[in-house]
Amino acid sequence: MVFVFCFTVKHSILATRCSVRGKVLSNIFQYRTGSSRVTNNVTDNLTDWETLSKKKKISKAMKAYLERAKEHDEFMKKQHFEFNVGKRHLANMMGEDPETFTQKDIDRAIEYLFPSGIYDPAARPLMRSPEEVYPARKAAEFDEAGRPHHFLFYTGKASFFKVLYDAAENIQELQKFEDKVIRKKASPDPNNSLKLEGSVWFTKEQLEKTLVETIEDIEYTNFKNVMERLVSLPYSYRCKDFIEQFRKPLTTQRFALEIPKPNYDEDGRAFITTYECLRKKARGDVTIKSPGTGNISINGKDITYFEDIQSREQVIFPLIFTGMQDRVDVVCNIEGGGPSGQAGAIRWGIAWSLRSFVEKDMLEKMQVAGLLTRDHRRRERKKPGQPGARKKPTWKKR
Amino acid sequence: MLTRNWRILSRQYSQAVTFRTNESSPQQHNEKQTGLFYTLNQDTCKSLFSNGGFPKSFLKQTKTFTETAIMIRQPALDLINCIKSTNFDAPVIRYVLYGEKGSGKSLTMAHMIHYAHEDGYLILHVPWVSEWLRRVPRHKEMSNSQTHEGFVDLPLDAAAWLIHFKTQNQALLKAGELKVSEEYVWSKREKTEVGAPLSELVEHGITRVKYACDVIYALVREIKTLSNKKQCKTFVAVDGFNSFFYPLTRLNTPTKRKVKPEEVTLTTTFLELTKNDWTNGVILLSADQLAVPDDHQESYFPRYLLRKKGFEHLDPFVPIEVGRYTEKEFLSCASYYRDRLWLRGPPETEIELKFTSASNPYKFMEQCAPL
Amino acid sequence: MNSGNWFLIKSLCDLSFRQCRGWRIPPRRLYANATSFPDYFKNPIFRKEQQGKLIESGELSKLAAVPVKPPATYETCSVYHDPLVNKVINHVMEMGKKQLARSLVEKSFENIKRTQIERYHLAPTPEEKNKIELNPKIILHKAVENCKPLLQLSPIKRGGITYQVPGPITEKRSLFLAIKWLLDATNDKDRTVHFPEQFAWELLDAANNTGKVVKRKQDLHRQCEANRAYAHYRWQ
What we know:
The complex is a heterotrimer. By secondary structure, chain A is of the alpha+beta class. Chain A has helices spanning 23-30, 40-45, 49-53, 60-94, 103-113, 130-133, 158-183, 204-211, 217-232, 240-244, 309-322, 339-354, 360-369; strands at 199-201, 247-249, 263-264, 270-279, 282-289, 296-298, 329-335. In chain A, the strands form two sheets. Chain A has a five-stranded mixed β-sheet with strand order 3-4-5-7-6. A two-stranded antiparallel sheet of chain A has the order 1-2. In chain A, strand 6, helix 11 (309-322) and strand 7 (329-335) form a beta-alpha-beta unit. In chain A, helix 7 (158-183) packs parallel to helix 9 (217-232) and helix 11 packs parallel to helix 12. Chain B is built from 16 helices and eleven strands. Chain B has helices at residues 4-14, 42-49, 56-65, 74-84, 105-119, 129-133, 155-168, 170-175, 198-207, 212-228, 265-273, 302-305, 307-314, 327-339, 348-356, 361-368, and strands at 37-39, 69-71, 93-98, 122-126, 143-144, 152-153, 184-185, 191-192, 234-239, 281-287, 318-321. In chain B, the strands form four sheets. Chain B has a five-stranded parallel β-sheet with strand order 4-9-10-3-11. Chain C has helices spanning 11-19, 48-57, 60-64, 83-92, 98-122, 126-131, 136-147, 171-187, 195-207, 212-226; strands at 151-158, 161-168. The chains are: A alpha+beta, B alpha/beta, C mainly alpha. Chain B: It holds the Pfam family DAP3.
């Protein structure tokens, strides 16, 4: 039987809920911050001086664990201290008030003092509180007698399997409820059904982060299957809180926020300019002028700037979709990329600008048509040892 | 589910738009009939255009539509008015048609030839200059000119053109009033005397292909003198005139040297013809981007296409722009295509086609093809 | 300021700086660029009829709350955009030359139209005139319908012998086979006849249930019928 000790300590600055009573205990509890799992059973055993005097045998594994916990605690305390001191120094250097120096100010200061040309944000210099920098560790999972607190401790991934266990319990409960309702000859109320369109399940990484445990791919697919099954039941709204815990809301309705108001130029016509119209390597900007006759001007030329029909169709697509082809004028400047990329950029630019001139339901229709989504796909690089991005050399069995 | 705007537009487009006119004589065409189609008689078509004059795509369309119909457009009407009000005692006026690719220059020219034919002009029509200078099959029949030193002859092309000239001017030539004023000696045994009818000269050129280019030169000189003497009024039409001024042709001498247009006898002939040193005639030319290779097709303006030499040669001239379809013309064309079963589908297609083809006549026809 | 005080500069940063030899910064991104949208993006619906259906069923606002992929570069909401025609153009395309493929398919449609208009004008009575189909897209639909096989033969090896066993076919594969056979028939032709004309002839033949492609489909069906005895091998 393999003992899996989790020699990890989760840091939280919450005060420990357990009370320190005995002298012996004080040694242990000092180095175990945030171990809220300690129950009163432990302390009950060691209250009176008789039992205290008996030398309690602590197993070697337990000893090693306690030492490491103590080390980690000390280390974190030191890091905290240094972080705070460093923060005050930094504030001093930047000429700001040390009391009101927020994390954002720290970030700005570091960017200023250590300018980095590295593309990946995770590789640039950063200064953060130790909790964010060092990975989280679990609280003590067993008491000093070696008895684990969690009933699923011996699975190795207690919190994960607890989640699955809860889900299974919920499923059974919901099925019993459904049976009851059917016996009463009622049916589910459609208004109460769960609305899950605006969110997705946590990714594997996010799940690992919340549970502070490593998860295999198979286990993750299992988890998703169980949750889908839970959601598919007709009375799943009863377990709404449990399900919401593991759903991440998507950035939605961005297109409906911040619709810009049109400016007015010298002739009194309303116009809107969208800058940064991108598609592949094409960059440009699009201006739509409101009381117009359907003139389209691209880089000073007519729509004949594009010689192939497909690009022209793409440019007029949003205009015809909204029915505004005779009511607005379009002026765009585009450079870079090829005909297809430029046409795509102009299409997005026109659709984005038209938001200000169009009603709300048409806005929803444009969103469903996908006209308002920025196309951020770029060309995939060719990898070494392969002829192309995905193409591989001929596969030889042997 | 159509919104209010869609409904209005569809109503606009589906109303029965009259696109035809019964007036088939170009002399009667006036401003009221812009944008309407008139049909040409089959026999007139054959006599005027059997050897060229219509673009190839248009010929295919005539076959599909089972009729030849040309749209009456503003540039043609302007030309007709100008011609009606010219003073024929003054030196000839040169008109240059210019416009984008596919905007209708050749068809306008065809319209004018029809008008000239009705009016009794003597027609000298070169359907497409690049045929001679740039369309070179594997082996092009070329010979060194005998009358002009160092010049190149195109005997078969010249003979073909003479046939074309004959069919176009059958009536006038048969009437036999046009006589040759000089004597031309072709060889020891062949010569054309003074006073012979023009048709004989033309026949000689067709039968004796070797002398065809010189025959054309002689013909041109004769026609100039006849016009000056007021015995006939001449209408000269050359399509793709700027091809004469492009530095190179695709012709090669047997020594593999590229031939310049100035070294071809036909060029000199037609440059002679288009000089404004004669009266009682009308010259209609067109400067087309398609007449020159793709590298030099940046702009469609005459100053760029005719180059320095051509511009100086033709200066002064009257430029006439042939533009894209207006709204009315576009609608009329669309209803004509629907009538001829060339365009089918809901009325919204027209709105889209207007934008994608940018109202260019040729592009519109192309884009209606698969619909 | 002692550098020792600034301990919280991540060790990874040091590592990466050391990796760039001599502080040379890599010119590209360290991670791959996005080449496709994530799974939770839905497909766009931009045809007027389909949007009309959505509005009737009241689902438009629900879909508007979800991220949606943008429509492809060859898809428009215009009336003459047909997904089947786009598919055929893609199959005709080689080496990514979309413009050429599109012009070939459009020219073949033009040829179909011209032949049909000729026949229309030659037809003596109005009933016959009505029977002639003038829209090339409808002819394409009919031709593809007539060429779609209903079964396919799959090679299954039992006891050393490979049997051709008839089995069901999915809708997608059936469509793919129909288009592939049409293009195969078009491509083995004599050199003088160009692709658009040959394709036009093939489509007209197939729409009439005659011609090489329909024959190939019928041969396949006959083979399947003949091999009916082996059908049980699928489950052995």
